[in-house]
Specification:
- The protein has eleven helices and nine strands.
- By secondary structure, the protein is of the alpha/beta class.
- The chain has two domains: 137 residues, Aspartate/ornithine carbamoyltransferase (Rossmann fold); 155 residues, Rossmann fold (3-Layer(aba) Sandwich), CATH 3.40.50.1370.
- The structure holds phosphoric acid mono(formamide)ester.
- Phosphoric acid mono(formamide)ester binds next to helix 2.
Length: 312
């Protein structure tokens, strides 16, 4: 594939190939010199118009492990403050030799626009566009589910697994990408949130929907994924009470006790401890939050390898 823009159109075979490649790349981290020559001579540019810790740094680590050169752009401190557009910024990075552009942007559809506008020839990887998609997060979540949630023998995909995704579904690109990918890979997904945090048209998604978190926990899921409230994307017109939200939707220690013993707890980060997840749960043995971060590097190595390998 030339670009990775979302999971909605990602086929099962493409997704499994990326996950299998990521499994192979994960072994590199344990080498004395954790590096492969695979992308030597290739330049990856991180083009981030929104803040990031995990995604930006793990793309950087992934590119370096594959011996690519890395350019990093953050909107803050750049000429965006002088009115420079996405087009001009991307063309500037391209003129400096960017072969792969990893784009995070606050506008839904920005990655599609950059990939299909003809502004640049580079391969485009969507690192999160507005409320739309965050495909590499979904792939690393699927990699983590495949690793830790499956009972032996480990399955090729996520068939037979069930996951409950809880929180601000309406404003979450992670939720959207995960729903599409998990469905493609055969998992059963339930989304949970207060009615005002469920997106219009959610009934057409391939998921079960409920506003009753305790009922969803009673369904004995294999994984529970907590999401933070996306205050930066929320309209102030939608009333929100932290106290009521914590009462009804926080994964507290008490609620975690209702989960099956082998059910794992996930969170894409950044976490708001004490809001959507209690600290004791985030730090408990059932938490795989740092496994998700770790898998992010190998999954992003696999994605860079995948897009670059497409006819380049
Ligand atoms: N999960 C995620 O996208 O985290 P960052 O915003 O820190 O990249």
């Amino acid at each position: 594939m030339k670009h990775l823009l979302g999971t909605e159109d990602l086929s099962r075979s493409d997704a499994l190939r990326i996950l299998d490649t990521a499994d192979e790349f994960s072994a590199v981290a344990n080498r004395q010199v954790p590096k492969l020559p695979t992308l030597r001579g290739v330049t990856m540019a991180n083009l981030f118009f929104e803040d990031s810790t995990r995604t930006r740094l793990s793309f950087e680590a992934a590119a370096k492990r594959l011996s690519a050169d890395v350019m990093t752009f953050g909107a803050s401190g750049s000429s965006v403050s002088k009115g420079e557009s996405l087009k001009d910024t991307a063309q500037t990075l391209s003129a400096m030799g960017a072969d792969i552009i990893v784009l995070r942007h606050f506008s839904s559809g920005a990655a599609h626009r950059l990939a299909h506008s003809g502004w640049v020839d580079a391969h485009i990887v969507n690192a999160g566009d507005g409320m739309h998609e965050h495909p590499t997060q979904a792939l690393l979540d699927a990699a983590t589910m495949r690793q830790v949630a499956h009972k032996e023998p480990r399955g090729e995909d996520l068939s037979g697994l069930s996951v409950v995704i809880v929180g601000d579904i309406a404003h979450s690109r992670v939720a959207r990408s995960n729903v599409f990918l998990f469905e493609t890979l055969g998992a059963k997904v339930t989304v949970v949130g207060p009615p005002e945090f469920l997106p219009p048209g959610v009934e057409a998604w391939p998921v079960s929907v409920t506003s009753d978190f305790d009922e969803a926990l009673g369904s004995k899921p294999d994984a529970v994924m907590m999401l933070r409230v996306q205050h930066e994307r929320r309209s102030e017109a939608v009333a929100w009470s932290a106290r009521e939200y914590i009462r009804d939707y926080s994964l507290t220690s008490k609620r975690a006790q209702l989960l099956p013993i082998d059910c794992v707890v996930m969170h894409p980060g950044p976490m708001n401890r004490g809001v959507e997840i209690a600290s004791e749960v985030a730090d408990s043995p059932r938490s795989v939050i740092l496994d998700q971060v770790r898998n992010g590097v190998s999954v992003r190595m696999a994605v860079l390898f995948e897009v670059w390998g497409d006819g380049s």
